């Protein structure tokens, strides 16, 4: 049993804290947002993540997991302090490190004995050194010793608990190999591959991994755009490509493009790091351009089929940036809705879990209690998030309630021929002439 403190109770911090306590460690999760801590203390989840509630409840009951908003309650006596605060995009695309700096300062002020400070937030190369510098400067008076380790997080929202328990790999980076080896001990029960490298390389592995996955998505989206002109079906193309072991099938689904709290900001931040260091990150720029284009293409299909959006009603299925999460950060649905509204369309929307978050962020949208209700009276239905419950919709019911039977499948989850047989005008992404 080790004593662990996790700073930040978002998607990464809460999962990390809960899952480490599930391995028998004593964990305190800390957040500066008191309301989040109060909700957690009442047994409520501040985020939606499948399986997390059970892990949290089990470990709170066993008194291995506690919550606080006070650094003085969480930091003293901790052997390991994980930083898992947000690193959103700054104005020029750089990672905004204000929360990481604040966390490092607060840790430094509360530290009373040696601890290993582990950065799980996605941070630009060199941030581990800056965190160490903050701790050295502020800790001069107390003289308490520490080490800094980078431990980038690779979990995916929607399967984060599973990803923690069954990671493909754990990457650790430090200037002190012994400190990294001690963090590695925490992960030994997971029996996964553990790589120990230097601090900057570990930080870069995270950005390079996310940029590569985003590149695969933009690659297949570019192929989809070409397929559409040439009469080929990108779904079949991806399936055929994916059978090649050198290529694989993952992240080759054409659609409205990637969104969420990671890929957009991480690709941008990596490009920014390259640019300010005199590189020309042309591939990364193309990845971002293609991603923006995919949202525009869906909008173009709506306009083309409706003869313009003014005065029309558009139903949107899916608001979260992907299924199985309530996260709406940089979700494609938001850009699509905003532009359609600007062009004069009325929006009816439904999402199985992201509606409370979306209601706080979107104006003048009719939020509906289910997918069928959203489709009622609509001139077109746009599928933006591929939730399972949309996959086997009752099309007779949908069609009977729509004003015009038009479906724009932004995630290619339907069989075009089947919907056309049922009398719908169907457009997917990259699926033959006219898609
Ligand atoms: N969400 C993901 O899927 C994912 C995956 C891998 C890596 N990451 C990275 O992990 C980091 C966290 O991401 P997230 O999605 O969990 O963010 P989040 O916004 O969900 O959570 C961050 C939390 O940190 C808290 N916080 C901010 N400043 C604080 C401070 N000084 N002290 C204490 N708490 C503070 C916030 O209140 C918030 O609850 C980011 O760098 C992100 O890029 C995220």
Task: Tell me the layout of helices and strands.
Layout: E1 3-7, H1 11-22, E2 26-30, H2 34-41, H3 52-61, E3 65-68, H4 71-74, E4 80-83, H5 98-110, E5 115-119, H6 127-138, E6 146-150, H7 160-165, E7 169-174, H8 177-187, E8 193-197, H9 199-230, H10 234-242, H11 263-276, H12 282-306, E9 313-317, H13 332-342, E10 346-350, H14 355-361, E11 365-367, H15 371-375, E12 380-383, H16 395-401, E13 406-409, H17 416-421, E14 425-427
Helix pairs in contact: 1-3, 5-6, 9-11, 9-12, 11-12, 12-13
The protein binds nicotinamide-adenine-dinucleotide.
Would you kindly provide a brief summary of this structure?
The chain is of the alpha/beta class and 435 residues long. It has helices at residues 11-22, 34-41, 52-61, 71-74, 98-110, 127-138, 160-165, 177-187, 199-230, 234-242, 263-276, 282-306, 332-342, 355-361, 371-375, 395-401, 416-421; strands at residues 3-7, 26-30, 65-68, 80-83, 115-119, 146-150, 169-174, 193-197, 313-317, 346-350, 365-367, 380-383, 406-409, 425-427. It folds into 2 domains: 3-197, Rossmann fold (3-Layer(aba) Sandwich); 231-427, 3-Layer(aba) Sandwich (Rossmann fold), CATH 3.40.50.720.
